[in-house]
Design goal:
alpha+beta, 3-stranded antiparallel β-sheet
Length: 233
């Protein structure tokens, strides 16, 4: 092969590698105009996560429900249960502050779901250690998180009734082990508040009712991440 042909071959190979291998590295800025225009009760797309349980097609855009909107920020929760994780990997007494699900949300999920441009508009939020309104179970200390779960007080404040709290999991979520109601197709999903005891955490039942505790190490509840987005970064 002559030097000229070798050079042309190397250039063609570089272009091919870029077209096939650089696609995953391509990033885009979040659509801030669309985010600012969203109203409470509407849905937005932000970030990507495996949802159709077909990894060969890549990750899908995450749809979020807008729960609250203030002058320069808004609170969102995933429309669907995105994954199935235990509240804590060990059967032990924990709080939101110490549970493994908090670490997973702010570690693996945060790194997987969002590109740097999106991370730049996710606020670091003060997450209060909301107590269980019915039981005097230790709730730990306040935390600062990028991603978190709603508390019992918050889920009652932001959702009008049981029907509004009903949630469907993604195919990937159910494949990971989330319980699926055969009649409604809905799932159980974790809240961050403690349950009846320190080794139980509150969750939302398939009917949308708030329940006061499932064992923290059970792997059958879906995860609906919540976060605050900075509208004027």
């Amino acid at each position: 092969m002559t030097m000229k042909r070798r050079t042309l071959f190397m250039l063609a190979l570089a272009v091919l590698l870029c077209l096939t291998g650089c696609k995953e590295k391509k990033t885009k800025r979040p659509d801030m105009d669309a985010l600012r225009a969203a109203e409470v009760g509407s849905y937005i797309y932000f970030g990507e996560y495996e949802q159709d349980n077909n990894e060969s097609t890549g990750k899908e855009a995450i749809e979020w429900l807008v729960l609250d909107k203030q002058e320069d920020r808004m609170l969102v929760i995933s429309r669907y249960g995105l994954d199935c994780q235990p509240y804590n990997t060990e059967d032990e007494e924990v709080t939101w502050e110490t549970c493994s699900l908090r670490r997973w949300l702010n570690g693996e999920f945060y790194e997987t779901a969002f590109i740097p441009e999106e991370k730049n508009v996710i606020l670091t939020s003060l997450v209060t250690a909301d107590a269980n309104p019915e039981y005097d179970t230790p709730s730990g200390n306040d935390t600062t998180d990028h991603v978190f779960l709603l508390s019992i007080d918050e889920v009652n404040r932001y959702f009008a009734d049981d029907k509004a709290r009903m949630c469907t999991g993604t195919p990937y979520c159910y494949e990971q082990g989330a319980y699926k109601d055969l009649n409604f197709g809905t799932c159980w999903w974790w809240l961050r508040s403690p349950g009846i005891g320190a080794s139980l955490a509150a969750y939302v039942f398939t009917s949308g009712r708030v329940r006061n505790g499932d064992f923290v190490h059970f792997v059958r509840n879906a995860v609906r991440p919540a976060l605050w987005i900075n509208l004027n970064p």
